UniProtKB/TrEMBL annotation:
Name the UniProt record assigns to this protein: Amidohydrolase
Organism: Streptomyces pluripotens
Taxon lineage: Bacteria, Bacillati, Actinomycetota, Actinomycetes, Kitasatosporales
InterPro entries on file: Amidohydro_3, Metal-dep_hydrolase_composite, Metal_Hydrolase, YtcJ-like
GO molecular function: hydrolase activity, acting on carbon-nitrogen (but not peptide) bonds
Keywords assigned by UniProt, alphabetized: Hydrolase
PANTHER family reported for this sequence: IMIDAZOLONEPROPIONASE (PTHR22642), PROTEIN LONG AFTER FAR-RED 3 (PTHR22642:SF2)
Gene3D superfamilies: 3.10.310.70, Metal-dependent hydrolases, Urease, subunit C, domain 1
Amino acid sequence: MSERTVEPPETVLLRRGEVHSPADPFATAMVVEAGHIAWVGSEGAADAFADGVDEVVDLDGALVTPAFTDAHVHTTATGLTLTGLDLSGAPSLEAALALVREFAAARPDDRVLLGHGWDAARWPGGRPPTRTELDEAAGGRPMYLSRIDVHSAVATTALLDLVPGGGLREDAPLTRDAHHAVREAALAAITPAQRGEAQRTALAHAASLGIGSVHECGGPQISSEDDFTALLGRAAEGPGPRVIGYWAERNVEKARELGAQGAAGDLFADGALGSHTACLREPYADADHSGAAYLDPESVAAHVVACTEAGLQAGFHAIGDAAVATVVEGVRAAAGKTGLARVRAARHRVEHAEMLTAETVAAFAELGLIASVQPAFDALWGGEDGMYAQRLGAGRARSLNPFAALLRAGVPLAFGSDSPVTPLDPWGTVRAAAFHRTPEHRVSVRAGFTAHTRGGWRAVGRDDAGVLVPGAPADYALWRTGELIVQAPDDRVARWSTDPRSGTPGLPDLTPGRDLPVCLRTVVGGRTVFVRPGE
């Protein structure tokens, strides 16, 4: 975790609001001192602190919550998406190519043009651009356009020419090793100034959404060592969201040298469903193969043993049921060598973990694995007619992202976005989990909120943070929102929880169609990192 080199912040009293705290479910005030929560309580008791603080903030009814943690982010790629070409809203191939022409014309000095977010499955005809079409639209310049899941891309001939060794002339979207090579060539062409702009933009955007921490998932197939260390250095200088880095390489010493929390994150056991590269036990419904396996159980076990003995977290990207089973088998084998207690204490992680069975859910609980999951995936690709159903058939698609089963088994959840795969959107993420397209996988808003706040801290080994109680880090956000309620999948639970005698603090109404809360201020370690203009 990045350390900040700034002076301790002043003492602040916040009052006349709604403070979401298990220390006092009816709290309306809070004191922050030396970067930590010092007190939480009632408005009447707040009077005793008013004369002894440096600043008093009148909340005027605003909601105060812990700042969110996004447990899976690609920060530079997110910034490049915010500053680059966004194709997520393109309704057709023709519209996407028109946007490429406009973008290329507006960026005459860029050495490489970058874009993201196309999804041919949602276009009439279902066809991505050919290399010839993209060459024409980009004016013959180097251009890289990643698919929405970032596991495949289309590229121009001029960019393929920059790949060391050459030889790439595919007309179809690039996947696997070819995609990795082209992505590395595109990122290598980015200037340090472009990279700095992208990182600043991404972190500022995160702060504006009430996000106080992000888990950066870097690695040699994703970004670069320079990108990773530059981001950690930028976050350490502050002010801004905290950045906890994971380096996806089976090299414990490299991860330690780079300042990573673990040799984890997107250490690929497989690919993604949208690109037909997630590794399945049975073939895809719309393809004659079962995806790609990038690791075997022996490799997983060796890595988990090395990380456990080094005091670092291990972690793997695993989406398909076969890939998840491989990770489970490997972690179990590692526990047989180091001891189950040591493996559980290490809090190793599995990113995405979409296709789970009752057996693998139980294994996650047994092995103490953290499920770092992205509820927005279901909102975007779930449902009877969504991409999941196209790739897997409706039956298998309904089994994906079983958040309720994970919670019932006692598996710790950490919510994230995988931005730029889906946008940074913390309240939208909680909504997606609470209103999952498959009703039996839904969780309460309270459980989803916990997974997106305290869950992210627990996923890095911290049980003392992500909650507004005395002694916790003063990472919090102020929100303008409507009535606070308790929402749960089972109406009987909701009715009981809203009884004042239950002492359950309320949260915003996230029913689909309602406006999401608006972030007014974000504070990290007691220091303000975002204030909404006009507030």
